[in-house]
Design a protein that fits this description.
It contains eleven helices and 13 strands. By secondary structure, it is of the alpha/beta class.
Length: 382
């Protein structure tokens, strides 16, 4: 029997390991997360794992992690250090201290000597320098200098839509196999078919957004099926909650075709500010997704129409009194739709009282768990 006993570093709430329950003998037995709110939720979702909450850079916390790993006979390290210091969605501050957190994972590798290691991050990890022994050194070179003597190390950049995930998401994956192991990490086979938004969420019914800045009577006049559709949505999942938006943004998206940005609408239907002046922005904002491709990368700001590629694809549903086309679902994706796009399992054990906005942000930080499942499955199957 080939068993993997894993420590999950920088675990957040455990998005990466959400599909491991579908694998025999692949178990996260120890986890570490800095923030208490996230650590507590992780423990609720994965009660059989030992969660150590605290800063891995603190010696006391590090020793707790190390002792727990030894007690639980950990043989695999999975590390997903924070990427905000190097992400293209962040400020990319040179020598951001968060970029050195991988060194604490490397320390644990030296102390535990595990059979297998996987480190996941944004692709800019490859071109991010830190100060190493007083010299500016790229992170991949640090990894090689520290661990080449004991591990076969392969560094890959992947797009998760090559592995059955209905979302384009570029990631960097470091795979380390300790010398002498019969089984070695390899990437799963690339799948020729890319799962589209139509396949991922096309079976779900249309949902109207809740518009918060107009009188309820006016809102119901504009969306007379809101309550009926809301009940249909919640019957599918308690996370299928209609998003909340403002009217001027909803109105712009009602006239925006699938795959297009509202900035290309006729002037009367372009995004405007509260004072009525035109919004100026990038054409990947106020933009609908496409039905016939994987979703765009889910970001932490996935609640906002005004952020990157966040709006439901919609469908042509008719014309207004002036003969202009109108499209359904002028809103961002629901949390349930995002979970599908992220390949999270339907039975993921998230407590019902978890804050929706908090979950949305966490999902925008994670790696799709279907890819991680296939990566581990590929190793287990030999």
């Amino acid at each position: 029997m080939f068993e993997m006993r894993i420590v999950s570093l920088f675990a957040n709430i455990g998005v990466a390991e959400a599909c491991f329950q579908e694998l025999d003998d692949v178990n996260v037995v120890v986890a570490n997360e800095l923030l208490a709110k996230r650590a507590n939720l992780y423990q609720s979702i994965y009660p059989e794992s030992t969660m150590i909450c605290g800063d891995i850079t603190d010696e006391n916390i590090y020793q707790q992690i190390l002792q727990a790993c030894r007690r639980e006979r950990v043989d695999t390290i999975m590390a997903t250090p924070p990427c905000q210091g190097m992400s293209t969605a962040g400020q990319k501050i040179k020598f951001d201290e968060r970029n050195t957190l991988v060194m604490h994972a490397i320390r644990l590798i030296h102390d535990l000597n595990p059979r297998y290691v996987v480190i996941e991050n944004v692709t800019d990890f490859i071109i991010t320098p830190i100060m190493y022994h007083g010299v500016e050194t790229m992170l991949p070179d640090v990894v090689h200098q520290e661990l080449d003597a004991d591990y076969d190390i392969d560094i890959h950049t992947i797009d998760t839509d090559d592995y059955g995930v209905p979302q384009t998401r570029d990631r960097m994956i470091i795979l380390m196999t300790r010398h002498g192991q019969r089984r070695k990490w390899t990437l799963p086979p690339v799948e020729q078919h890319k799962v589209t938004m139509e396949e991922a969420i096309g079976d779900l019914p249309s949902i109207d957004p809740f518009v918060k800045d107009i009188p309820y009577e006016e809102f119901i006049q504009r969306f007379p099926l809101y309550e009926e559709r809301r009940q249909q949505a919640l019957a599918i999942s308690p996370w299928n909650i209609p998003p909340v938006h403002v009217w001027r943004q909803v109105r712009a998206m009602m006239y925006t075709p699938t795959g297009q940005t509202a900035f290309d609408n006729e002037p009367e239907y372009r995004p405007v500010k509260l004072d009525g002046t035109f919004v100026r922005g990038y054409k990947n904002t106020y933009k609908r997704q496409n039905w016939n491709t994987p979703a765009y990368t889910v970001t932490m700001d996935n609640r906002k129409i005004s952020s990157q590629n966040n709006v439901h694809p919609g469908r042509l549903i008719g014309q207004d009194e002036n003969g202009r086309d109108i499209y359904s679902d002028p809103r961002t994706l629901t949390l349930y739709e995002l979970m599908r796009v992220m390949s999270l399992p339907e039975d993921w054990n998230v407590p019902a009282n978890t804050d929706e906005a908090f979950l949305r942000r966490i999902i925008g930080e994670g790696i799709p768990p279907l890819f991680m499942k296939k990566l581990f499955q590929n190793l287990v199957n030999g």
